[in-house]
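During the no-cost extension, the postdoctoral fellow (Dr. R.K.) reprocessed legacy sequence entries with the updated structure-token encoder. One reprocessed record is reproduced below for audit purposes.
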Amino acid sequence: MTSYLIKNARVFAPEELGVQDVLLAGGKILAVGKDLGVALPDLETIVATGKILTPGFFDQHIHVTGGGGEGGPVSRTPELVLSELVACGTTSLVGVSGTDFITRSIENLLAKVRALASEGVSTWMYTSNYRFPPTTMSGEAAKDIFMVPECLGVKIANGDHRSSFTTVEEMLHLLADIRLAGMISGKLGVLHIHSGNIPGAFEMYEEIVRRGFPIRHIRPTHCARVQHVFDSAVKFAKAGGYIDITTGGSCCFGTPAEGIMSALDQGVDPKLITMSSDGHGSKPRFNEKGEMVGLAVCGIECNLSAVQELVGKHKLDLPTALRFITSNVADSHLISDQGRIKEGACGNALLFNEDLTLTDVFAKGRAMMRSGEILVKGTFEL
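Re-encoded structure tokens follow.
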């Protein structure tokens, strides 16, 4: 396997480290420093003067097996392919299931997550979908977390007309199982929650926390979809909870980046904000009468676009903008070798031009894209 010595890049880890050399070998970041002298077989030196080097992006909400289905079988969206990830710098992901709990099995989700890992990216998953009790592989959510290395927790929906409308007691019981399974398996264990438009969900979380349950296990996503959800999410984050802003779905702001800036302006700790794409979910198209006239597939390039907008339009510093899609996601799941440029971390790295145009992608130490050309595609891509 080729090793890469990337020289003279301006490194953001995501904190700024200045101009450094970075050595990728054996699937890892082996060294970060100035004027590294390296002698390895099959070593390629990349002179990156004037370039920006960052961690690979970590997207914690992608429908890798496809989403949709609400409009019947014809509305099921297609599976994700590797080149889509490479094109937008996503080197790590958590696969999720959605509304369809019948034709989109959790076993199929696990198989797809493992296939993508074999093709070259770092992958995890949440068991279940929108339903309560959870849809699982083993018969119990806790067993899925314990027995499946890739399984980081459970996904359900709350406050949505398609959700199961759990009670506080039911959700607390599920959270306790997730927490215990995480403790036994050496994971954190999280409940990843699709947030719908129906009020009351965040009040449930507040009640659960008031009873003494740790807030860090409760993970709402789609937190900027409508104003009242966003307002509740800001309050939740100020109490110490993580909130996830969807970059590819509906948003009550002009753009998801504007939602993130609003949360920051209201005093939310930037360490508690993450963003994810909702990639390969279905996206309805409506005519001027409000009638649905078609479905599109949510892309995954929106995380990259959001970072570019945060820095370019809103003048947010690059380390903070990167944190939302790199180290915050890794830290929120206690995955220490992801989301950072540091010795011993997974060899995930991106190179950008100064205007934040993505040019090069490395995943697990392997060059996936060079000078804007995708080098590695999925098994069945033409």
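The chain is about 25% helix and 30% strand. Residues 3-55+339-373 form a domain with the Urease, subunit C; domain 1 fold (CATH 2.30.40.10). The remaining legacy entries will be reprocessed before the final report is submitted.
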